[in-house]
Amino acid sequence: MPGHVPVLLPDVLAGLHLQSENNVIDATLGGGGHAEALLETISPDGRLLGIETDQRTLNVTRHRLERYGSRFNAAHGNFRDLRGIATAHGFPAVDAILFDLGVSSMTLDEGDRGFSFQHDGPLDMRFDPTTQTLTAADIINTWSAAELVRCFRELGEERMANRLADIIVMSRRTQPFTSTVQLATDIAAVKHQRGRIHPATQVFQALRMAVNDELGAISAALPQAVDLLRPNGRLAVITFHSIEDRLVKQWSRQAAKAGQVSLVNKHVIVPSRQEQVANPKSRSAKLRLIEKINSTA
Ligand SMILES: C[S@@+](CC[C@H](N)C(=O)[O-])C[C@H]1O[C@@H](n2cnc3c(N)ncnc32)[C@H](O)[C@@H]1O
């Protein structure tokens, strides 16, 4: 199974201000690239809790990092339940928390999960099929044209949302959509490719975010993360598109106004040109660093 290259790794490590005995939560464990580097940085005594909603990914990464023994704790769950998961695993107060949002390369490459138009598979896209019921096929085959337009526009910033929703509604009357390539082909038939971006990219992003209620999960998790942090503890959030980044920016500004946090950087941190060339998937990444205010200072 090909690995996932952790993005903005030196910036995350430097930005979280870690010490050797720190306790840390990686709320999006994925392939464990960041987690491994965090565990090395907080060695020999620091402990890390990795949370992952995707059971297959969790199994692979748990095995990969098992050499860290009791310093590495892995939890299957959704970070929208961050406080409960952290407390249940013995991490009621921590020094740093990382969110590296989105989907890992491992999951994208598994065609049968239905995340990718490059690998044919069922239109599924659930991060956790053991607890989630709504699939991308349900959305594409049952939502009204107006609901599809809203989804494509708000979660995918798709400029042809109306036209694509009409085509999908017309097409599904004769044959319901079942596969990723079937949907991507219909989209590509009406929307021309611009540059290197496949015409179905925004619709697939919107569907994934809707299936997994990704904005709802991060909105629920951010205040819990601040609660869990010790005074002066740090939060790092990596996003991959503007809708998510806007949410994190607006929330962090409000939390700063309320005197709960301070913003470590005035501007977002983005990958260097060198990182973008070495790992093209990092191109759209943005990192925000937030510090919990020490209210007794
Ligand atoms: C971009 S990847 C993280 C990669 C990781 N930092 C690494 O270095 O390998 C994001 C991971 O978060 C998981 N994820 C997404 N939403 C989640 C949620 N609400 N709760 C827990 N895990 C989630 C995805 O399944 C995916 O494995």
Unreliable runs, pLDDT <50, ≥5 residues?
A: none
Count of extended strands: 7
DSSP strand content:
5-15%
Helix-strand string: HEHEHEHEHHHHHHHEHEHE
| CATH class annotation of the largest domain | Alpha Beta
Q: Which cofactor or ligand species appear?
A: S-adenosylmethionine
What is the helix fraction of residues, given as a range? 40-55%
What fold name goes in the CATH topology slot of the largest domain?
Rossmann fold
Explain this structure to me?
Helix content is about 45%, strand content about 15%. It is of the alpha/beta class and about 300 residues long. The chain has two domains: about 10-105 and about 215-290, Rossmann fold, CATH 3.40.50.150; about 135-210, DNA polymerase, domain 1, CATH 1.10.150.170. The protein has a seven-stranded mixed β-sheet with strand order 3-2-1-4-5-7-6, with helices on both faces. β2 (about 45-50), α3 (about 55-65) and β3 form a beta-alpha-beta unit. α7 (about 145-155) packs across α10 and α8 (about 160-175) crosses α9 (about 180-190). The longest helix is centred in the last third of the chain and has 16 residues, at about 240-255. The radius of gyration is 20 Å and the shape is globular. It starts with 8 loop residues before the first helix and ends in a 5-residue tail after the last strand. The mean pLDDT is about 95. S-adenosylmethionine binds near residues 4, 52, 100 and 104.
